[in-house]
């Protein structure tokens, strides 16, 4: 039986190794959430537009992204972006672009479900008031849809935060990598993996508690 | 841009084109060196093995944990089982799969010595199985709670014990209801099995990384790997929808909406 000694995990180690990774993971999560919701909303509107020229490309994009493992998507972008722009690109930037593109597909499904959850009568009422399609979406449908979607968005963001650890595949310096390098340098790989798991757990568990609270609130409003 | 699929017929040792792309698989030219196509097929086999084993673990544990979470809070044993299964779900749901794979590979064998003799693909399968079991448990619980409470009441009125009412009334209905979300969880598991590259299981993703480096034919290699992942997930989808059709009870509407699960 092996005994654990966590006394090496101090403030100095945290600021030297972990903080940089934590900042990157959080930053990646925020960029991917904001960018993913933006592009995801466009994709969802394309799919719901009823025009084949918009519906098919968006559907193809979403289904392709959803059927490929994220690790492969990360590798694909890391391979293709330098080929397209003709010069190498850093792992950090590549990861950010990948996550925005990948999450857009998942957020678009949430937005689509959210829009469809708004009763048809709301759209009819908007039309009866003489609103255009754009006005109807912007002023009537989307505000209600987004309110319903907030808990699902947040759940997806927690999943996304966990998924950022997969940038391991291209060697970006994220939270997990920070713990791994610290473990190697201090000769304590076992302890640092446990600490990494504990860190992710605390963050994701507390966030999921918050989501549950918000869910209850949104449910009352509805 | 043109694709050079000839790369798959190349020898993995010296990069020369071999006579039979499929040499090792069909028992042809036993003495010749394997081609990239042979390697690809072997890697696919590893992916399917890891995912299959993981799915078996996930389905069994997920069904058990999900059922335990819905137990009536009548006895203190039940209350303990509910607590344990809730903790199980929270624990395995809130740690990234890659970190869990590292825990099973680097950490847990130092504490549980018998695990040291297990091959690494077993450890990855256990990690994937436990991770997915938390998600499946949530689906099972949702399925059980979606049943009208009259079902349980009827079982109690007939004098069935708790175990009997689960065995004969609740689970046969609930497990049918949750086939669509189980399908997407199973497809997720195949996709998630790609994390096995991180502990050097020679599956598709590790093949993609290594063959890309050796041949510089990244696009061709990645296309083949991506296609095989999509094909595997699609096969699971078809099998599950057959199971859903066969197990459907006439007169009961089984929900069909695709889950958004990641």
Write structural notes for this entry:
The complex is a heterodimer of chains A (222) and B (262). With 222 residues, chain A is mainly α. Chain A has a domain at 23-173: MetI-like fold, CATH 1.10.3720.10. Chain A contains 8 helices and no strands. In chain A, helix 4 crosses helix 6 (133-163) and helix 5 packs antiparallel against helix 6. Chain A starts with 10 loop residues before the first helix and ends with a helix. The model of chain A has no long low-confidence stretch (mean pLDDT 89). Chain B is mainly alpha-helical. Helices cover 67% and strands 0% of the residues of chain B. In chain B, helix 1 (36-69) packs across helix 7. The radius of gyration of chain B is 22 Å and the shape is elongated. Classes of the chains: A mainly alpha (222), B mainly alpha (262). Chains A and B meet through helix 3, helix 4, helix 6 and helix 8 of A and helix 2, helix 3, helix 7, helix 8 and helix 9 of B.
Give a concise summary.
With 222 residues, chain A is an all-alpha fold. Chain A has helices at 11-48, 52-67, 70-85, 91-117, 120-128, 133-163, 175-186, 189-221.
List the helices and strands and how they pair.
The complex is a heterodimer of chains A (222) and B (262).
Chain A: H1 11-48, H2 52-67, H3 70-85, H4 91-117, H5 120-128, H6 133-163, H7 175-186, H8 189-221
Chain B: H1 36-69, H2 76-93, H3 97-111, H4 120-146, H5 149-157, H6 162-177, H7 179-192, H8 204-215, H9 218-247
Helix pairs in contact in B: 1-2, 1-4, 1-7, 1-8, 2-4, 3-4, 4-6, 4-7, 5-6, 7-9, 8-9
């Amino acid at each position: 039986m092996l005994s654990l000694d966590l006394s090496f995990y101090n403030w100095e180690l945290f600021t030297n190794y972990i903080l940089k990774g934590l900042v990157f993971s959080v930053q990646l999560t925020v960029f991917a959430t904001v960018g993913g919701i933006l592009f995801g909303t466009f994709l969802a509107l394309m799919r719901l537009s009823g025009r084949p020229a918009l519906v098919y490309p968006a559907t193809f994009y979403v289904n392709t992204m959803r059927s490929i493992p994220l690790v492969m998507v990360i590798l694909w972008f890391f391979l293709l972006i330098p080929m397209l722009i003709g010069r190498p690109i850093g792992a950090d930037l590549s990861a950010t672009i990948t996550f925005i593109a990948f999450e857009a597909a998942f957020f678009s499904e949430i937005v689509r479900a959210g829009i469809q959850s708004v009763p048809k009568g709301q759209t009819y009422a908007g039309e009866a008031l003489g609103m255009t399609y754009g006005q109807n979406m912007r002023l009537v449908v989307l505000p209600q849809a987004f309110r319903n979607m907030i808990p699902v968005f947040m759940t997806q963001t927690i999943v996304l935060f966990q998924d950022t650890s997969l940038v391991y595949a291209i060697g970006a310096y994220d939270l997990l990598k920070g713990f791994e390098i610290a473990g190697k340098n201090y000769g304590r790989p076992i302890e640092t993996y446990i600490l990494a798991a504990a860190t992710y757990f605390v963050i994701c568990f507390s966030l999921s508690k918050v989501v549950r609270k918000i869910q209850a609130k949104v449910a009352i409003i509805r | 841009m043109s694709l050079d699929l000839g790369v798959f017929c190349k020898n993995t040792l010296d990069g020369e084109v071999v006579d039979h792309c499929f040499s090792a698989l069909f028992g042809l030219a036993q003495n010749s060196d394997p081609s990239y196509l042979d390697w690809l097929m072997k890697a696919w086999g590893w992916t399917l093995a890891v995912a299959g084993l993981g799915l078996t673990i996930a389905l069994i544990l997920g069904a058990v944990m999900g059922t335990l979470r819905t137990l009536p809070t009548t006895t203190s044993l039940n209350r303990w089982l509910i607590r344990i299964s809730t903790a199980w779900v929270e624990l395995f749901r809130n740690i990234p799969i890659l970190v869990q794979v590292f825990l099973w590979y680097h950490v847990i064998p130092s504490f549980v010595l018998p695990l040291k003799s297990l091959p690494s693909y077993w450890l990855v399968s256990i990690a994937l199985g436990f991770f997915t079991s938390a998600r499946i448990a949530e689906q099972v619980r949702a399925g059980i709670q979606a049943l009208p409470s009259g079902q349980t009441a009827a079982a109690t009125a007939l004098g069935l014990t708790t175990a009997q009412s689960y065995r004969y009334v609740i689970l046969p209905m609930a497990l049918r209801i949750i086939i669509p979300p189980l399908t997407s969880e199973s497809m997720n598991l195949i996709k998630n099995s790609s994390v096995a590259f991180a502990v050097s299981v020679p599956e598709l993703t590790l093949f993609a990384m290594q063959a890309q480096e050796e041949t510089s034919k990244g696009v061709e290699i990645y296309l083949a790997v991506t296609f095989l992942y999509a094909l595997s997930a699609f096969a699971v989808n078809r099998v599950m929808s057959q199971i859903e059709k066969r197990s459907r009870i006439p007169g009961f509407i089984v929900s069909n909406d695709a889950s958004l699960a990641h």
